[in-house]
Amino acid sequence: MAWIRTISFDDADEELQEILRVTRRAYPQEYATPAPAASTINESIIDSHTLIPDALFHAFSTFSALMSPDLPLERRQHEMIATMVSHTNDCFY
Q1: Positive/negative CA dihedral, 31, 33, 24, 44
Q2: Rounded to whole angstroms, how far apart are CA atoms 30 and 40?
Q3: pLDDT per residue over 39-52, tens digit each?
């Protein structure tokens, strides 16, 4: 597995801590509880962006806006589109 240096919440400055709080609050509710088979290591795609706080904020704010439950598509439709885009682009993950 690849290793990416991250900044933990406790080691982050106040600005990064606030960005992490805002980002996690805006994430889809489905991500609030880990899946039963999830890794026991505290890892997160959000945390992998902590070295560039502005990019973290903008990228994940965009994702949250795109996944808003107020939009006309249901979550399952978003997931179906994402699956087909990944398949079309030959993404293996």
Answers
A1: negative
A2: 18
A3: 555 667 888 899 99
